[in-house]
Amino acid sequence: MTQLYIGIYGASGFGKEVMPLVREQYPHLSKEQFVFIDDGQAGTFLNLYPVLSYSNFLANPSSEKAVTIAIANSKVREKLVARLEQDNVKNIDVKASNVVILDEVQMGEGSLLCPFTCLTSNIKIGKFFHANIYSYVAHDCVIGDYVTFAPGVKCNGNIHIEDHVYIGTGAVIKQGTPEKPLVIGKGAIVGMGAVVTKSVAAGTTVVGNPARILEKK
């Protein structure tokens, strides 16, 4: 029988929320088969689970190792994914038991869908997508790789979100149209509570209602 050993990469507040979701997905495993991975906190415990360095996680004699990355920073996620691939550690998809997914939804690998997430219909999502609690994606949306939704993001229909976008807590993105989707450009940041009514250029940060570019002082 394969001895599976699962690490939650990131011993943080978000990691504490993700661990129970992973345990729920693998009810046949014992608690000893789950750990946190965080080089900065190695040797400690978090919610009674050991926190290991990445090298110590790799050194465990289990025949199969798997990881989910509970880190909101998309650039860090991308670097860790490359490390895991190099070491032949597989990524697992995490989905809370009450997540709603309707028709024709395509998901890339490594997704992390927290409780009360809703993905409606005709949606395409890239790899290593994070949707925190109470977020939704409505019909006919296209989402790139390494996109992060903080809690309570409302992504309405006909929206295109490019790679490495971060959408802050409670942000609302106005619905686009099939002929002219609303676009959030690569690497853009949408601030907490922002109401996005028009497309956002790549690499910019928008805040407020209606959302406007954050000017650097």
TrEMBL record:
Pfam families to which the protein is assigned, alphabetical: PglD_N
Domain of life: Bacteria
Residue spans crossing the bilayer: none
Gene3D superfamilies with a match to the protein in the record: 3.40.50.20, Hexapeptide repeat proteins
Chain ranges of the PglD N-terminal domain: 6-84
CDD domains attached to this UniProt entry: LbH_AT_putative
Family of the protein in this entry: Belongs to the transferase hexapeptide repeat family.
UniProt xrefs under NCBIfam families: NeuD_NnaD
Protein name: Acetyltransferase
